[in-house]
Design a protein that fits this description.
Elements: H1 12-17, H2 20-23, E1 26-27, E2 47-52, E3 79-81, E4 88-90, H3 94-98, E5 103-109, H4 116-125, H5 138-145, E6 155-158, E7 175-176, H6 200-217, H7 225-241, H8 244-250, H9 257-260, H10 267-281, E8 285-289, H11 299-324, E9 331-336, E10 340-341, E11 356-357, E12 361-366, E13 374-376, H12 393-403, E14 411-413, E15 419-421
Parallel strand pairs: 1-7, 2-8, 2-9, 5-13, 6-7, 6-8
Antiparallel strand pairs: 3-4, 5-12, 9-12, 10-11, 14-15
Helix pairs in contact: 8-10, 10-11
Length: 434
């Protein structure tokens, strides 16, 4: 698994590791069993995919270009037309340009959190972070509202996720694959395969022993939320270990060759292929993370040769693949980083870069009831801020939930009985569904 350094000195792997027990981002061997069922509204998306561009991608060099801005702001890239007349994006996103009819670009998205971890928590939950409360991510909420069969994971993160289960409890935590698939190779998630010569019969005996021990010591346990969640993890892990369906779902080498050929060989593009496969297999929510966007220096080289080609190939193939399998109408998709980058290229280094900039950024949304082929919102002439009223991450979150048939204003209760609104601020963006 690749490691990406943030400018604040924290490595991406360290950021995932910090607080891992508290967040409940556990591996498959410890995964949980789904619990309370929710009501599904007819006609809405029933599954979700969240793509996290961790580090903060530049809006002006991707989906919100300003070719007429002054030198030092507009950047090195030219623009190209999309399949929708009048809308242009970066020249390094040709496949996304051809597929704009499948998604919406949100421009002029704005907030005030310029630190990586705070911005990431905001866009992964839709609520501004609080020191006194940990909000659940989209995946945890959807999994609570929409349970899945016991032999398939509800929420899969490839390779890991910035989303947490928060006050909903550890039983709704994501299953981290811990790695990304490689083209042409079977993808075995740790815990799915019965390795080291272990047989299903041996696993059954171990499971029965654990149940006997649980029964013996039940009276001594404090049946709090953590223990309940761990019990559910154990049950879910056992169900999946003995499930051919789960092992088959993760094996991208089993995908139809013609279908798989439209996905490139890059690990992110292969992760997008796996995401489509998992949704088709019944997984409720998939999050993907691709890092490297924290480009304070050498931004134009990094974008043109590394980051934008994989983003272009992966997301366009994901949307096309979902559509080909008849899943785009039932899958709500969001693509975002934690913030944008400064309009003015910095000159601190020989190779220019852009710095953290939450005042203006982009997001992409697709699937479900969302009407693709449009731009919603607008930034000013230099992409320094919204030209008119800002769209906030809370607005995007409310819209994402709405697309899933979940009321963003509904309340959940913490373990102590405290009622908490799902999205504190923000409103559904009506143009998305017009």
């Amino acid at each position: 698994m690749s490691i990406h350094n943030y400018c604040d000195g924290m490595k991406r792997r360290d950021f995932i590791r910090v607080g891992s027990l508290a967040t409940g981002s556990l591996t498959l061997a410890n995964y949980l069993r789904m619990a309370d069922a929710g009501q599904v509204k007819d006609g809405y998306a029933t599954s979700g995919i969240f793509i996290d561009l961790s580090g903060g991608p530049s809006h002006i060099d991707t989906f919100d270009p300003k070719p007429d801005a002054p030198e030092g702001i507009r950047g090195d890239f030219k623009t190209i037309p999309t399949c929708v007349p009048g809308i242009q994006i970066s020249e390094h996103l040709p496949k996304m340009a051809k597929n704009l009819d499948k998604y919406v670009i949100l421009r002029g998205v704005s907030h005030t959190l310029a630190a990586h971890n705070l911005g990431s928590e905001y866009v992964n939950t839709g609520s501004r972070p609080l020191a006194s409360l940990e909000y659940p991510g989209y995946g945890a909420v959807l999994c609570k509202e929409r349970p899945v069969a016991s032999d398939i994971p509800a929420f899969v993160a490839i390779p890991n996720s910035g989303q947490r289960s928060g006050f909903l409890g550890i039983q709704y935590a994501p299953l981290n694959t811990g790695a990304s698939p490689q083209a042409g190779k079977p993808f075995n998630v740790r815990g799915i395969s019965l390795g080291a010569g272990v047989t299903v019969e041996q696993l059954d005996r171990r499971q029965n022993l654990l149940k006997d021990l649980d029964h013996t010591f039940a009276s001594m346990e404090n049946r709090d939320q953590l223990l309940t969640g761990l019990d559910r993890f154990s049950d879910k892990a056992y169900s999946m270990l003995t499930s051919e369906r789960a092992r088959y779902a993760f094996d991208v080498s089993k995908e139809d060759a013609k279908f798989a050929a439209q996905f490139g060989t890059d690990s992110f593009e292969q992760s997008c292929l796996l995401a489509v496969r998992l949704i088709e297999s019944g997984v409720r929510f998939v999050s993907l993370r691709v890092g490297g966007w924290d480009n304070h220096t050498d931004i134009f080289n990094n974008l043109s040769t590394k980051l934008l080609p994989k983003l272009d190939g992966g997301v366009s193939a994901l949307l096309t693949g979902l559509e080909q399998k008849g899943l785009l109408g039932s899958t709500s998709v969001m693509v975002t980083g934690e913030f944008g980058r400064t309009p003015k290229v910095n000159t601190r280094a020989t190779l220019g870069g852009r710095d953290h900039y939450p005042r203006c950024m982009f997001m992409l949304m697709a699937g479900g009831k969302i009407r693709g082929g449009q731009v919603i919102g607008q930034s000013d002439e230099t992409a320094s801020g919204p030209a008119n009223e800002a769209i906030t991450p809370s607005d995007a979150a409310a819209s994402f939930y709405h697309n899933l048939g979940i009321d963003p204003k509904q309340e959940f209760q913490t373990e102590t009985g405290r009622p908490i609104m799902l999205v504190r601020d923000g409103n559904v963006i009506p143009q998305l569904f017009a």
